[in-house]
Amino acid sequence: MVSEQTIEPLIVVGVDGSNHSKEALRWAVAQAAMTGARVHAVMAWEWNRNPFAIGPTAAETVDAEAVTAEEAARRKLADTVAAAVGTSPGVPVFRRVEQGSPAQVLVDASKEADLMVVGTRGYGGFKGALLGSVSQQVVQYSAGTVVLVREGADEND
Q: What is the reported pTM?
């Protein structure tokens, strides 16, 4: 007897803690509720090593700082998911924290996604821009369909 497995579609959401990413996450959860999809909230973290750190304890300091940066990203992601959709949304949100540039992490994640969702901009410095640099790169290089969610959008937009 051959068993038939149903694979739920996967929606990947880029999250950075900004209001735009919270709106994107809310939109993705609403979409998942309508389509039966899974939701993965992905946050990237980067840590720059100090090229001038030398001495016997430099490696230990590097490791400790990297662990601290990753843990801070995990906490920020958990807080952002809770703020955006509550602690027990109707659709489970799987949280992923990955090291790397945000654009590259999200483009890589798009390869496994049926739908990629990002806010129109994050914490970047140029407030007048229609699209942030990460969102722009995700749209340009993503392996599949990308939905851009602007801050203030509702689920029906």
A: 0.80
